[in-house]
Design a protein that fits this description.
about 250 residues; alpha/beta; Fructose-1,6-Bisphosphatase, Chain A, domain 1; D-Maltodextrin-Binding Protein, domain 2; 2 domains; seven-stranded mixed beta sheet; three-stranded parallel beta sheet; globular; lithium
Length: about 250
């Protein structure tokens, strides 16, 4: 580990480990068969036990190591840290850090950031509707401090053991993006990814106006999953011309 890493690098290193823990929680809830589904605002806006446990795990884990940060979660807004820590058993709290991230040099513009200046945005389970429908490769865990995305069931089609499933991608401006293999959209082709479950005429008209050669939408749910399509180079653009995608 490099000497005295910058606070932001320590936080990203922790977020990586916490995202791995979150993936394990999501797999465990699914395999228990008790998803604990509730409707937040309607049939297309669901919440499961995994959403709730993962958000509590992320909030409690990060705040334990970084008590001065602000955490804003998809499910409850600004996290009440004391409640999260009080409710959670120790096996849901992750205190380790990614050594690979700690060994990287912090970009100069972020090196002096203080803990109290940092805000972490969390979507504990992006693609909840797809999760309840068994579309396991559509789901992601999103932790935004630089950018950390966990795919709990990556490669699940290959029949691997639960412990071998999943992957975590991460990136930071000035450092790059890591945890995946870059693919290339063929020259001259426009491949668009868009919403799977919230489409309407405005969305389809906007996509059509781009005259894409292919549209990946029926197979791709979850904003985080579509972002992964861009990061990996499988799509040229993610288009969703409507209100709905949250910060």
């Amino acid at each position: 580990m490099s000497g005295n890493p910058a606070v932001v690098m320590c936080l990203v290193a922790s977020a990586y480990a916490v995202a791995e823990k979150a993936g394990a929680i999501i797999r465990r809830v699914l395999h228990s068969g008790e998803l604990g589904i509730v409707e937040k605002t309607g049939a297309n806006d669901l919440q499961t036990l995994a959403d709730r446990l993962v958000q509590q795990s992320i909030c409690a884990s990060l705040s334990k190591s970084f008590p001065k940060i602000t955490i804003i979660g998809e499910e409850v807004g600004v996290c009440n840290i004391r409640i999260c820590q009080r409710r959670l058993s120790e096996d849901l709290i992750e205190s380790s850090q990614s050594e690979e991230i700690l060994q990287k040099s912090c970009p100069l513009e972020y090196s002096a950031l203080k803990e109290e200046e940092l805000v972490v945005w969390v979507d504990p389970l992006d693609g909840t509707k797809e999760y309840t429908e068994g579309l396991l490769d559509h789901m992601t865990v999103l932790i935004a401090i630089a950018g950390v995305i966990n795919q709990p069931f990556f490669n699940y089609q290959l029949g691997t053991e639960t412990a071998d499933m999943g992957r975590t991608l991460w990136g930071m401006p000035g450092l790059g993006a890591f945890g995946f293999e870059l693919q290339e959209v063929p020259d001259g082709r426009r491949i668009v990814t868009t919403t799977r479950s919230h489409s309407n005429k405005l969305v389809t008209d906007t996509v059509d106006a781009m005259e894409p050669h292919d549209v990946i939408w029926r197979r791709v749910g979850g904003a985080g999953n579509k972002i992964v399509q861009l990061v990996e180079g499988k799509a040229s653009a993610y288009v969703f011309a409507c209100l709905g995608t949250k910060k």
